Amino acid sequence: MNQPNPAPEQAGSPLESRYRRLLRAYPGAYQADRGDEIVGTYLDTIEPGRRWPSPHDALDLLGAGLRERLRGYGALGLAAAFPLAATAALNTLIAVATFLLLQVEFEDPRFARLDPVGPVQTLGAVIWLGWLLVGLTATALPGSWTRTAAAGGLLLTVAVPPVAALIGQPGPPLFVLLPAAALGLATLALPSHPGWVARSLPLLTAGCITAASVAFSAAENGGNMFTSYSSTPELLAMAGGLMFTLVLLVGLGRALRADDTGLWATLLLATPAGLFGADQLSQAIWGTSGGGPTPAAFATTTGSILLAGAALLAAALAGQAARHRTVRRRVLDEACPTCGHRPEVTAEA
């Protein structure tokens, strides 16, 4: 098969070099075998005058490279798990955003001893409204529009706190922002063509949380249990645990049908789920100071959760890769005694 070479005007250009740098996402052998073909195909489809790969091309190359590496580990289930984890992450963010808006941000700022930011307690309301908009986009315009909106939601989550500090306005605490940012990062892998169930979940989630919030307020009979972010750590820890449990149950159900996608999604969401409980865990391990953990204790606990989540995922991937190599060796050793033919080995072996 003839491999297309880069267009003459692009050969050796900075644009070609940038595409080749993106190819490093692929395994080395794959780059050597098909690198010229891939780069040539992309360069043949771009408009004249472009100097940088488009964001779509960059994400496409990085995603395909990751899938090819996972194929070599026999872990394509992990690649397939990203959209499932993203869907769970988005709906968790919508649930948290709806609750915090209704129960905290729209409460009287005097309860939190804060100067109000207009009709809300903090600039965090911008973050939560942003994620509700992402949920609406996921229902009405799934695919690239939703992923673009999710990138905007993640940008808001990261940018609002320093902006709030810069202009002297209150913002949400770190024990809320860190898991929100982790979940926001996961939403970048939202599926391109979700089914009607996935598309209806954001509105259903927001509606259920709104109804529960109204019912809770009525049950309080004028009480004010959730009046500021400092009154929500326990509930956020429960939200993280519930998200993890639901995804695990889905994973176990799929595992009964020989589909490990849900179990990989559970591993991907273990770290965000743990971050939801970082405040409570810090207090349980290190004690409290002024009603909450010290910054050093919270940083230590958060770092430990991040390391544990990464180690858990790496261990699962290493175990799958070892199993994959063992199966490949066993299959390749089973040559036909008559003709010496060796069977083909699939990536999922």
UniProtKB/TrEMBL annotation:
The keyword tRNA processing does not apply. Keywords: Membrane, Transmembrane, Transmembrane helix. The chain crosses the membrane at residues 76-102, 122-141, 148-167, 173-190, 197-216, 236-256, 263-286, 298-319. This is Uncharacterized protein. It comes from Micromonospora inaquosa.
